[in-house]
Structures are given as C-alpha cells and as structure tokens.
Design brief:
Blueprint: H1 3-11, H2 14-17, E1 55-59, E2 62-65, H3 66-81, H4 91-114, H5 122-133, H6 136-145, H7 150-172, E3 177-188, H8 191-202, H9 207-214, E4 221-226, H10 233-239, E5 251-253, E6 256-269, H11 272-293, E7 296-298
Antiparallel strand pairs: 1-2, 1-7, 3-4, 3-6, 5-6
Helix pairs in contact: 3-4, 4-7, 5-6, 7-11
C-alpha cells in the first residue's frame, strides 16, 4: 500500500488517530503498554430490534450501527493478518478493541462538537483525502481495497477528525514544564543482591560507579522524570520523597529490586517524550472519566 494511502487508513483507525503518542521509555520509567481499551460496560446479546437499523452500541444517544462496527472489525482483522500469527492480536481482542475505539471516538467527537468544533464540508474533506492519496484514482483504489463506499469513508473521516480535534485540545492543557527529579538507579533481580548493593552504598561506595557495574550501557541514568511519567508507582513515590543527593532503600516492583538516587530536582521544561507521555495519560484519564459518566449501551458480544 502506498505510504500516503497507509496514512489515510491509519486516520480511520481510532487507536492511531486519537493521539500521536507512540512511546518507549527506559526501564523504570519503563515502556508504556500499547493501548487496548475495553469498554467499561457489560456486553450483551443483541435483542430483537424495533428499529430498521441494527445497532452495535449507543453512546449518549449517538448510534454506532452494527454494519459500521462489522466493517471496521473486518478492516482491523485484515490489517492484523499482515502482522503474522506470532504478534497479531487474537480475533476476539481485535473485536473488543475496535468496539472500544469506536465508543471512545464517539465520546471525543461529541465533546468536540460541544466545545465548538466546526467540521469541514464533505467536498473539502474529499479534496484533502484525494491530495493525501496522491490522486482520485489512488483514493478510489484504496476505498475498494478496504471496503469503503465514498459515503462511509467520509462519515468515518468526519468522526475521526472531530475526535482528533478534541484529543489535541485535551493534550494542549498539559503544562509544558513541571517539577522533575533526575534519577539514577541500580536494578537487581533478587532481594539478596539488593541488600548487598545497599550495604556497599552505606559503606561509602560511589552510587554512580556502582550503577555502571550493574548497567554498563547507561550507568542506571534515568534522566529527568516528572510526576506521572514513571510507570512503577513505588519508584515514583520514593523519587519525589527524597532530597537531592539522597538514596532510597530497596524498592520492590514487578521489574525487580530498585535502589535510586535523586541527583537533581527542578522545575523545568518537559522533554518531548515526557510531554507526549503526559499528554497520552491526560487523554486516557479524560476518556476514563467520560466512560464512567456516559450512557453507553453495547448490544453485541464480539466473537472470535
């Protein structure tokens, strides 16, 4: 698939559009897991419907037609098939993720319109898509390959544009600077080794030199970390409780046994990766609150 068409396809997958926050972090700040949100509602079988159009879900009164869900699920399955069986998600998870993404898109789009978002006209959206695709013929080929009619494509694009607008608005509220600590750590994988390291530190060994022995690649340097950046809550709690120059006790997490030292502390601008992570967290927190307070009715049980 040409790169520009792949970009359009990505725009139509909510997980790609909602937030451009792909992210990797060093261990302990550690890596953020990939997004896979499951609706916080009970999935039930579809009852007989008095309406002409069967629904997959209704979000605050906004319908998600069953046909749209099935079409998005088919596209997601086709995309997953290109990944190979070893890394592709299983069909049941694909269905759940697609449904959850469609619910989240509806919540974001509703908030966008309530916040003053003005959608582009269909003619303008189409012209933009043609330009991004590299021409009318290329776009039409893309639609045929992915099972879109022009109407369905534009309908999906409208929702995604509104959702992306709201996601950017939420992300923009994250401050560009924050109190941060600069950390160095020694990470070992059993209690006995951690106790031995702590004893050596208490006897006056230099933390940085010892850290290089346990991590010859980075010397345990975790860089600057704001609140909300470290995935291990126990490590973050310890980091922000220490003064500059202080060393923690042994901190046990699922990753192992950590001993950290705060090398500096300051209010400073967030680096791009930290800002991206906090923006992603702000979006996920917003969605979590919206799901908790929204009226979400799910009428399908995603099946393998």
């Amino acid at each position: 698939m040409p790169k520009r068409l792949a970009l359009i396809f990505a725009m139509l997958l909510t997980a790609s559009v909602i937030v451009a926050c792909g992210r990797e972090r060093v261990q302990t700040p550690t890596a953020v897991p990939s997004r896979a949100i499951t609706p916080t509602v009970t999935l039930t079988a579809l009852p007989p419907s008095p309406t002409a159009v069967p629904m997959a879900a209704v979000v605050n009164g906004t319908p998600i037609p069953l046909s749209e869900f099935q079409a998005e699920e088919a596209r997601a399955r086709a995309a997953a098939a290109t990944l190979g069986t070893e890394i592709a998600p299983n069909p049941s998870q694909i269905a759940k993720t697609v449904l959850a993404d469609m619910v989240d898109t509806a919540l974001l789009a509703q908030a966008a319109y309530a916040s003053g978002y003005k959608p582009s006209k269909d003619e303008e959206l189409w012209k933009q898509a043609v330009s991004e695709a590299g021409g009318e013929q290329a776009l039409q080929a893309f639609l045929r390959k992915n099972g879109y009619t022009r109407q369905a494509f534009l309908r999906s694009l409208r929702k995604q544009r509104a959702a992306a607008w709201m996601a950017r608005r939420i992300a923009a509220q994250v401050p560009r600077s924050a109190e941060q600590v600069r950390l160095r750590q020694i990470l070992v994988y059993n209690q006995k080794d951690a106790e031995a390291v702590l004893a050596r530190l208490k006897h006056g060994e230099d933390f940085a030199k010892l850290a290089w022995q346990y991590d010859p690649y980075t010397g345990g340097d975790l860089g600057w970390a704001p609140r909300g950046y470290l995935l291990q809550p126990a490590v973050e709690k310890a980091a922000f409780s220490l003064k500059v120059g202080e060393v923690s006790g042994i901190i046990k997490t699922p990753l192992g046994y950590h001993i950290i030292k705060v090398e500096d502390r300051a209010v400073r601008p967030l680096d791009p990766l930290a800002l991206q992570v906090l923006q992603h967290k702000a979006l996920e927190d917003w969605l979590r609150r919206q799901r908790a307070n929204a009226s979400i009715r799910i009428f399908v049980t995603p099946m393998p």
